[in-house]
């Protein structure tokens, strides 16, 4: 963008708009692929959305689960 007072004014206005939830969603949903809606045949609140952060719990240790303390391929040789 060309620097100048008009550009700065436009940047400030856009920055203020991004503080509004509806405007923020209008801009970011298409970038995240969240603007396309499909009939997924289920009414569950998580169907068709990004999964919220959840704690993974397993009934038994799973050797295929990778963690920060156990990188792919096991310990460094």
Q: Give the proportion of residues in helices.
A: 25-40%
Low-confidence region ranges? none
Q: What integer value in Å does the Rg equal?
A: 22 Å
In whole angstroms, the N-to-C terminal distance is 49 Å
Largest sheet: none
Number of strands: 0
Proportion of residues in β-strands: under 5%
| H/E element order | HH
Shape: elongated
Description:
By secondary structure, the protein is mainly alpha-helical. It has a domain at 1-51. Helix content is 34%, strand content 0%. It has helices at residues 5-18, 21-32. The model has no long low-confidence stretch (mean pLDDT 81).
What does the secondary structure layout of this molecule look like, with pairings?
Elements: H1 5-18, H2 21-32
Question: Any descriptors?
Answer:
77 residues, mainly alpha, 0% strand, elongated
Question: What is the structure about, briefly put?
Answer:
With 77 residues, the protein is an all-alpha fold. The chain contains two helices and no strands.
């Amino acid at each position: 963008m060309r620097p100048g007072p008009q550009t700065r004014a436009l940047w400030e206005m856009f920055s203020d708009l991004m503080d509004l939830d509806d405007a923020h969603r209008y801009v970011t949903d298409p970038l995240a692929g969240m603007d396309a809606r499909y009939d997924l045949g289920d009414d569950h609140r998580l169907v068709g959305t990004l999964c919220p952060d959840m704690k993974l719990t397993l009934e038994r240790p799973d050797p295929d689960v990778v963690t920060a303390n156990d990188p792919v391929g096991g310990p460094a040789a």
